[in-house]
Amino acid sequence: ELNIYNGIPHLLIPVVTEPKKAAGALNWAVNEMTRRYKLFADNNVRNIEGYNDFVEKGIIEEKLPWIVIIIDELADLMMVCPNDVEEYIGRLAQMARAAGMHLVIATQRPSVDVITGVIKANIPSRISFAVSSQIDSRTILDSSGAEKLLGKGDMLYYPVGESKPLRIQGAFVSEEEVETVVEFIRNGLKELEYKKEIMDEIENSVSKSKGGEDCDELIDEAIKIVLEEGQASTSLLQRRLKIGYNRAARIIDEMEAEGIISGRNGSKPRQVFGRDDTMRQ
Predict the structure, then answer these.
(1) Higher pLDDT, 256 or 38
(2) Which of 166, 213, 221, 243 is deepest in the core (most CB within 10 A)?
(3) Percentage of the chain surpassing pLDDT 90?
(4) 243 closest CA partner among 225, 259, 261
(5) C-alpha R_g of the chain
(6) Rounded distance, CA 88 to CA 242, Å?
(7) Domains and CATH numbers, the chain
(8) What 3-state DSSP class applies to 111?
Protein backbone atom coordinates (compact mmCIF):
# COMPACT_ATOMS: atom_id res chain seq x y z
CA GLU A 1 0.00 0.00 0.00
CA LEU A 2 2.92 2.39 0.54
CA ASN A 3 4.10 2.10 -3.09
CA ILE A 4 1.84 5.01 -3.94
CA TYR A 5 4.27 7.31 -2.11
CA ASN A 6 7.26 6.45 -4.31
CA GLY A 7 8.76 9.54 -5.85
CA ILE A 8 8.16 12.06 -3.08
CA PRO A 9 11.33 14.05 -2.32
CA HIS A 10 12.03 13.22 1.32
CA LEU A 11 12.34 9.43 0.83
CA LEU A 12 15.89 8.16 1.43
CA ILE A 13 15.17 5.06 -0.68
CA PRO A 14 12.20 3.76 -2.69
CA VAL A 15 9.48 2.01 -0.71
CA VAL A 16 10.74 -1.47 0.22
CA THR A 17 8.23 -4.23 -0.53
CA GLU A 18 10.29 -7.44 -0.11
CA PRO A 19 10.47 -8.70 3.50
CA LYS A 20 14.15 -9.69 3.21
CA LYS A 21 15.05 -6.22 1.96
CA ALA A 22 12.90 -4.68 4.68
CA ALA A 23 14.96 -6.55 7.29
CA GLY A 24 18.08 -5.23 5.54
CA ALA A 25 16.67 -1.69 5.74
CA LEU A 26 16.13 -2.10 9.50
CA ASN A 27 19.71 -3.36 9.80
CA TRP A 28 20.88 -0.20 8.01
CA ALA A 29 18.83 1.88 10.45
CA VAL A 30 20.54 0.22 13.43
CA ASN A 31 23.95 0.91 11.87
CA GLU A 32 22.96 4.53 11.18
CA MET A 33 21.82 4.92 14.79
CA THR A 34 25.17 3.56 15.99
CA ARG A 35 27.03 5.95 13.66
CA ARG A 36 25.05 8.91 14.99
CA TYR A 37 25.79 8.05 18.60
CA LYS A 38 29.49 7.90 17.74
CA LEU A 39 29.23 11.38 16.19
CA PHE A 40 27.49 12.62 19.34
CA ALA A 41 30.24 11.15 21.53
CA ASP A 42 33.00 12.64 19.35
CA ASN A 43 31.40 16.10 19.65
CA ASN A 44 30.32 15.82 23.31
CA VAL A 45 26.59 16.23 22.67
CA ARG A 46 23.68 14.14 23.96
CA ASN A 47 21.22 14.17 21.09
CA ILE A 48 20.47 15.26 17.53
CA GLU A 49 19.33 18.74 18.60
CA GLY A 50 22.68 19.44 20.27
CA TYR A 51 24.58 18.07 17.28
CA ASN A 52 22.65 20.14 14.73
CA ASP A 53 23.17 23.26 16.86
CA PHE A 54 26.87 22.85 16.11
CA VAL A 55 26.03 22.83 12.40
CA GLU A 56 24.14 26.14 12.75
CA LYS A 57 27.19 27.63 14.51
CA GLY A 58 29.48 26.42 11.72
CA ILE A 59 31.48 24.11 14.00
CA ILE A 60 30.67 20.98 11.97
CA GLU A 61 29.35 20.52 8.44
CA GLU A 62 27.08 17.46 8.30
CA LYS A 63 23.53 18.20 9.42
CA LEU A 64 21.65 15.07 10.48
CA PRO A 65 18.06 14.73 9.27
CA TRP A 66 15.26 13.22 11.33
CA ILE A 67 14.34 9.78 9.98
CA VAL A 68 10.94 8.09 10.28
CA ILE A 69 10.72 4.36 9.49
CA ILE A 70 7.18 3.20 8.65
CA ILE A 71 6.33 -0.52 8.60
CA ASP A 72 2.93 -1.19 7.05
CA GLU A 73 2.56 -4.88 8.00
CA LEU A 74 4.83 -6.23 10.72
CA ALA A 75 3.39 -9.76 10.43
CA ASP A 76 5.02 -10.27 7.00
CA LEU A 77 8.45 -9.41 8.38
CA MET A 78 8.01 -11.60 11.44
CA MET A 79 7.18 -14.58 9.22
CA VAL A 80 10.34 -14.23 7.11
CA CYS A 81 13.02 -13.33 9.68
CA PRO A 82 11.52 -12.98 13.16
CA ASN A 83 14.71 -13.02 15.23
CA ASP A 84 16.51 -10.28 13.30
CA VAL A 85 13.42 -8.08 12.94
CA GLU A 86 12.58 -8.34 16.64
CA GLU A 87 16.15 -7.46 17.56
CA TYR A 88 16.39 -4.51 15.14
CA ILE A 89 13.05 -3.05 16.19
CA GLY A 90 13.91 -3.55 19.87
CA ARG A 91 17.21 -1.69 19.54
CA LEU A 92 15.72 1.14 17.49
CA ALA A 93 12.77 1.58 19.82
CA GLN A 94 15.06 1.64 22.86
CA MET A 95 17.73 4.04 21.63
CA ALA A 96 16.97 5.70 18.30
CA ARG A 97 14.78 8.59 19.52
CA ALA A 98 17.69 10.71 20.80
CA ALA A 99 19.45 10.06 17.48
CA GLY A 100 16.49 11.55 15.59
CA MET A 101 15.08 8.24 14.35
CA HIS A 102 11.50 7.12 14.95
CA LEU A 103 9.39 4.03 14.24
CA VAL A 104 5.76 3.77 13.12
CA ILE A 105 4.68 0.11 13.03
CA ALA A 106 1.31 -1.26 11.90
CA THR A 107 -0.19 -4.73 11.72
CA GLN A 108 -3.60 -6.25 11.08
CA ARG A 109 -2.62 -9.28 13.17
CA PRO A 110 -2.18 -8.16 16.79
CA SER A 111 -1.15 -11.58 18.09
CA VAL A 112 1.68 -12.23 20.55
CA ASP A 113 3.83 -13.91 17.88
CA VAL A 114 3.78 -10.64 15.87
CA ILE A 115 3.75 -8.07 18.68
CA THR A 116 6.31 -9.85 20.83
CA GLY A 117 7.18 -8.91 24.39
CA VAL A 118 10.40 -7.19 23.28
CA ILE A 119 8.63 -5.07 20.65
CA LYS A 120 5.71 -4.25 22.94
CA ALA A 121 7.93 -3.23 25.85
CA ASN A 122 9.86 -0.77 23.72
CA ILE A 123 6.97 0.91 21.90
CA PRO A 124 5.02 2.76 24.61
CA SER A 125 2.72 4.91 22.41
CA ARG A 126 0.02 2.81 20.72
CA ILE A 127 -3.13 3.13 18.61
CA SER A 128 -5.83 0.50 18.16
CA PHE A 129 -8.69 0.49 15.70
CA ALA A 130 -11.64 -1.88 16.19
CA VAL A 131 -10.53 -5.45 16.96
CA SER A 132 -12.49 -8.67 17.21
CA SER A 133 -11.70 -9.65 20.78
CA GLN A 134 -10.67 -8.37 24.18
CA ILE A 135 -7.48 -10.44 23.90
CA ASP A 136 -6.40 -8.45 20.81
CA SER A 137 -7.20 -5.20 22.62
CA ARG A 138 -5.03 -6.23 25.58
CA THR A 139 -2.19 -7.26 23.24
CA ILE A 140 -2.12 -3.75 21.77
CA LEU A 141 -3.16 -1.45 24.63
CA ASP A 142 -2.68 -3.57 27.78
CA SER A 143 -6.37 -2.97 28.44
CA SER A 144 -9.76 -3.87 27.01
CA GLY A 145 -11.93 -1.43 25.07
CA ALA A 146 -10.81 -1.68 21.44
CA GLU A 147 -13.21 -4.60 20.89
CA LYS A 148 -16.10 -2.14 21.47
CA LEU A 149 -15.02 0.43 18.86
CA LEU A 150 -17.39 1.17 15.98
CA GLY A 151 -14.98 0.96 13.05
CA LYS A 152 -14.59 3.55 10.26
CA GLY A 153 -11.73 5.40 11.95
CA ASP A 154 -12.97 5.03 15.54
CA MET A 155 -9.78 4.43 17.55
CA LEU A 156 -8.13 4.41 20.94
CA TYR A 157 -4.86 6.35 21.25
CA TYR A 158 -2.63 5.52 24.23
CA PRO A 159 0.33 7.95 24.27
CA VAL A 160 3.19 8.06 26.75
CA GLY A 161 2.21 10.02 29.85
CA GLU A 162 -1.52 9.30 29.74
CA SER A 163 -3.13 7.13 32.41
CA LYS A 164 -5.72 5.67 30.02
CA PRO A 165 -6.36 5.53 26.25
CA LEU A 166 -7.98 8.51 24.49
CA ARG A 167 -10.85 7.86 22.10
CA ILE A 168 -10.41 9.80 18.86
CA GLN A 169 -11.69 9.74 15.29
CA GLY A 170 -9.37 9.14 12.35
CA ALA A 171 -10.07 10.75 8.96
CA PHE A 172 -10.55 8.66 5.83
CA VAL A 173 -8.25 9.65 2.97
CA SER A 174 -9.10 8.02 -0.36
CA GLU A 175 -6.52 6.58 -2.73
CA GLU A 176 -7.44 9.24 -5.30
CA GLU A 177 -6.71 12.02 -2.78
CA VAL A 178 -3.33 10.51 -1.91
CA GLU A 179 -2.43 10.16 -5.61
CA THR A 180 -3.40 13.78 -6.26
CA VAL A 181 -1.24 15.12 -3.43
CA VAL A 182 1.73 12.90 -4.34
CA GLU A 183 1.48 13.93 -8.00
CA PHE A 184 1.38 17.62 -7.00
CA ILE A 185 4.57 17.19 -4.94
CA ARG A 186 6.31 15.25 -7.71
CA ASN A 187 5.53 17.94 -10.30
CA GLY A 188 7.52 20.45 -8.28
CA LEU A 189 10.68 18.34 -8.48
CA LYS A 190 13.47 18.78 -11.00
CA GLU A 191 15.15 15.46 -10.33
CA LEU A 192 14.58 12.74 -7.77
CA GLU A 193 17.64 11.49 -5.89
CA TYR A 194 17.63 8.44 -3.63
CA LYS A 195 20.58 7.57 -1.40
CA LYS A 196 22.39 4.99 -3.51
CA GLU A 197 24.78 4.02 -0.71
CA ILE A 198 21.84 2.99 1.50
CA MET A 199 20.28 0.96 -1.32
CA ASP A 200 23.64 -0.77 -1.95
CA GLU A 201 24.03 -1.62 1.75
CA ILE A 202 20.55 -3.17 1.84
CA GLU A 203 21.26 -5.18 -1.33
CA ASN A 204 24.53 -6.43 0.14
CA SER A 205 22.84 -7.61 3.34
CA VAL A 206 20.24 -9.50 1.26
CA SER A 207 22.98 -11.06 -0.89
CA LYS A 208 24.83 -12.23 2.21
CA SER A 209 21.73 -13.92 3.59
CA LYS A 210 21.07 -15.64 0.25
CA GLY A 211 24.67 -16.61 -0.45
CA GLY A 212 26.47 -19.80 0.45
CA GLU A 213 28.23 -18.16 3.37
CA ASP A 214 25.35 -17.63 5.75
CA CYS A 215 27.57 -15.84 8.24
CA ASP A 216 26.31 -13.46 10.89
CA GLU A 217 27.43 -9.88 10.30
CA LEU A 218 28.56 -9.60 13.93
CA ILE A 219 30.85 -12.64 13.72
CA ASP A 220 34.08 -10.62 13.40
CA GLU A 221 33.18 -8.40 16.34
CA ALA A 222 32.19 -11.48 18.35
CA ILE A 223 35.52 -13.19 17.60
CA LYS A 224 37.37 -10.06 18.74
CA ILE A 225 35.45 -10.07 22.03
CA VAL A 226 36.11 -13.77 22.62
CA LEU A 227 39.84 -13.38 21.94
CA GLU A 228 40.06 -10.36 24.26
CA GLU A 229 38.16 -12.06 27.08
CA GLY A 230 39.77 -15.48 26.63
CA GLN A 231 36.39 -17.16 27.02
CA ALA A 232 33.31 -17.84 24.92
CA SER A 233 29.68 -18.07 25.97
CA THR A 234 26.29 -17.01 24.70
CA SER A 235 25.74 -14.83 27.79
CA LEU A 236 29.00 -12.95 27.09
CA LEU A 237 27.96 -12.21 23.50
CA GLN A 238 24.43 -11.25 24.58
CA ARG A 239 25.82 -8.74 27.05
CA ARG A 240 28.59 -7.24 24.89
CA LEU A 241 26.76 -7.21 21.54
CA LYS A 242 23.29 -6.47 22.99
CA ILE A 243 21.67 -9.31 21.02
CA GLY A 244 19.19 -12.05 21.84
CA TYR A 245 20.00 -15.59 23.01
CA ASN A 246 19.21 -17.30 19.68
CA ARG A 247 21.51 -15.06 17.67
CA ALA A 248 24.31 -15.34 20.24
CA ALA A 249 23.99 -19.14 20.16
CA ARG A 250 24.23 -19.15 16.34
CA ILE A 251 27.41 -17.05 16.49
CA ILE A 252 28.92 -19.46 19.04
CA ASP A 253 28.10 -22.35 16.68
CA GLU A 254 29.78 -20.50 13.77
CA MET A 255 32.94 -19.93 15.81
CA GLU A 256 33.00 -23.58 16.82
CA ALA A 257 32.62 -24.62 13.16
CA GLU A 258 35.58 -22.40 12.21
CA GLY A 259 37.76 -23.91 14.94
CA ILE A 260 38.08 -20.66 16.87
CA ILE A 261 36.63 -22.18 20.04
CA SER A 262 36.28 -25.73 21.31
CA GLY A 263 33.10 -27.74 21.29
CA ARG A 264 30.82 -28.21 24.25
CA ASN A 265 32.37 -30.26 27.06
CA GLY A 266 29.78 -30.70 29.79
CA SER A 267 29.89 -27.91 32.35
CA LYS A 268 33.48 -26.93 31.50
CA PRO A 269 33.99 -23.58 29.72
CA ARG A 270 34.89 -23.64 26.03
CA GLN A 271 38.55 -23.24 25.12
CA VAL A 272 39.55 -20.31 22.89
CA PHE A 273 42.10 -21.29 20.24
CA GLY A 274 42.37 -18.02 18.30
CA ARG A 275 42.49 -17.84 14.54
CA ASP A 276 44.83 -17.22 11.66
CA ASP A 277 44.62 -13.65 10.27
CA THR A 278 43.74 -15.00 6.85
CA MET A 279 40.97 -17.30 8.06
CA ARG A 280 38.16 -14.88 7.27
CA GLN A 281 39.65 -13.04 4.29
Answers:
(1) 38
(2) 243
(3) 52
(4) 225
(5) 22
(6) 11
(7) 2-118+175-196 (3.40.50.300), 216-276 (1.10.10.10)
(8) coil
